[in-house]
Amino acid sequence: MKSSFSDLSKKHPDKIVFFFYILTALFFIYYFRSWQLEDALITMRYARNFALGKGLVYNEGLYVQGFTAPLYTIMLGMVYWLFRFSISLPFLGVVIAYLSLTIVAFSVYYFLKRVDYPVIGFVAGLSLFMPRIFWLSAGSEMLFVIALVCLGLFFYSKEYTKCAFFFMGLSVFARMDAILIVGLFLTYHMVKKRSINPGEIFVLILPVAVWLIFARFYFGEFLPNTLAVKMSQYRQLIETDPAMAEFSNKILFSLDYFPFSQYWFMFLFPAGYFLLKKQLWQIKLLIMWGVFHNIVYFYVLRVPPHYFWYHTYITFSFMLIYILGICFVAIVLLPSILHYGKELLNSFSSDNYIRMLFVLVLTLFFLVPVGHTAKRFIPEMSLSRHNLPWYHHPVYKLAAVWINENLSEDYTVASGEIGFLGFYCDRFIYDGCNLINRGFTIENPIYDVYVGVGEPVVDYTPDVINSNYRLIKTFQPEGYPVVEIWLRRDHVYDDK
User: Fold this and answer.
1) What is the DSSP letter of 4?
2) What is the spatial order of strands in the sheet that 429-431 belongs to?
3) What span, in angstroms and rounded, lies between the C-alpha atoms of 58 and 66?
4) H-assigned helices in 219-349
5) Nearest-5° Cα angle at 326, 324 to 331
6) Cα(240)–Cα(57) distance, rounded to whole angstroms?
7) Cα distance between residue 149 and residue 204, in whole Å
8) Among 43, 46, 41, 84, residue whose Cα is nearest residue 62
């Protein structure tokens, strides 16, 4: 007897939902198959060198921890090696991002299904594929970290406590700032269990401890070199160019990252009420994680990050609030008002009103980090190259390929942008921002080639470049700014 699709969906709803999320992920993987993120390419050069047996290095022989995602970097390298170097690393990053988002979506569905709201869970999970900041962050480790956290919460819901602690430890191994969600998780566990098993703590800290010991001996430092560099970089940006810093944050906090975002504030109130009424501790932890993450950056470290992928966590938090609000209004509140209006109104007690007021105040507190720098929001921001932050980066790929084909293999290359350039150029790279090296400055002309952006993105060339180097090649595809290649004056170059 053949079973219909409806029978299958009734018997195995979770499998149907997961399959639907996989199909959605495959669509996005295909659509963004050529997407490449500048900073993710730095990590991918580390991963490629690791797979090729050169070590966890950006430049062979130079041991600097210039990546913030150890587990993600190692995993990329291992998969690249398993495919015998035949798979594109940027494409692999996109695949991992959307498979991670599938895990996140299914976890959210499962958490809501546990409190008898499978339809809201399905819609909520599906909606997580929509935020543009998730699309733009594909290739970075951010969605992978969220997936590891969701797996930890999923296994904890299933009473596999040690497995849950292990995945929480992996999330910190994947990116150190996940320690915030681990702190929230441990607090919840302590309140619930009143104690912590030593075995649970062991599996939690094991992956992180092993990496920290390895990093200390291999790189000479426990933490990534990029942490201090990026914080000082943004502080310098605020001091030297406040207008640029303000513009950057306006772009990053644009509510256009959220679908139908001009209406999202309407649903904060019902979402908060919904969270208070249901035992959705997992969703509450995930929302608090994103909020605390931004509060730490804004008010503790005082370095509001101007890289959009840093705001993936807060976007995730806002999306959960937004989705729950919409679903609650559409699926729960409106039908209840229509059919049981009088009974519903009578069910509100004074205690419930106090709770709802508390939710409103708490929600406004969520918005404080946004209001701190973003006084107004950009209404539209398309995915066209002209509206993307740092849209000049892909031109560096043209420069990198040209250097490989036309300049000596012994030449070293310096630049302030090393993602596309370093990934596609097989030369020794000096980074003007010191992400992958230490103590280097553009003003110290120890390099053979300089690659930089010309007008109209910047209106100056460092004096040391004008004095010691000559311009030999420019690239300016239609609609893009100029990227220039400068060669030392004492080097011979035959311009054919």
Assistant:
1) P
2) 429-431, 413-415, 449-453, 483-488, 469-475
3) 8
4) 225-240, 242-252, 268-277, 281-295, 312-327, 334-347
5) 90
6) 32
7) 12
8) 46
* 431 DSSP 8-state letter: E
152-166 residue pLDDT tens:
999 999 999 999 999
- Residues 196-232 as b/e (b if ≥16 CB within 10 A, e otherwise) read eeeebeebbeebbeebbeebeeebebeebbbeebbee
Find out whether 423 and 404 touch, Cβ atoms under 8 Å.
Answer: no
Of 366, 292, 286, the residue nearest 124 (C-alpha): 286
pLDDT (tens digit per residue) in 69-121: 999 999 999 999 999 889 999 999 999 999 999 999 999 999 989 888 888 88
Q: Is 473 helix (H, G, I), strand (E, B) or coil?
A: strand
Taking CA 411 as the corner, what is the angle to CA 406 and CA 414, rounded to the nearest 5 degrees?
105
Residues in the chain: 496
Residue 204 token pair = 């939690």
For 75, other C-beta atoms within 10 Å of its C-beta total 17
Every domain of the chain and the residues it spans: 5-373, 395-488
Terminal C-alpha separation, the chain: 75
Write down the H helix ranges in 407-460.
Answer: 419-424
The CA dihedral of 413, 418, 421, 424, to the nearest 10 degrees, is 110
Is there a contact between 126 and 319 (Cβ–Cβ < 8 Å)? Answer: no
Give CA 106 to chain center in angstroms.
19
Q: What φ, ψ does residue 234 adopt, rounded to 5°?
A: -75, -35
Separation of alpha carbons 194 and 362, rounded Å: 27
Which pLDDT value is given to residue 195? Answer: 80
Structure tokens at 308: 């959009």
| Strands, E assignment, 335-443 | 413-415, 429-431
| CB-CB contact of 303 with 235 (8 Å) | yes
For 190-240, the pLDDT digits (tens) are 988 888 889 999 999 999 999 999 999 999 998 888 777 766 666 665 555
Total H helices, total E strands in the chain: 22, 5
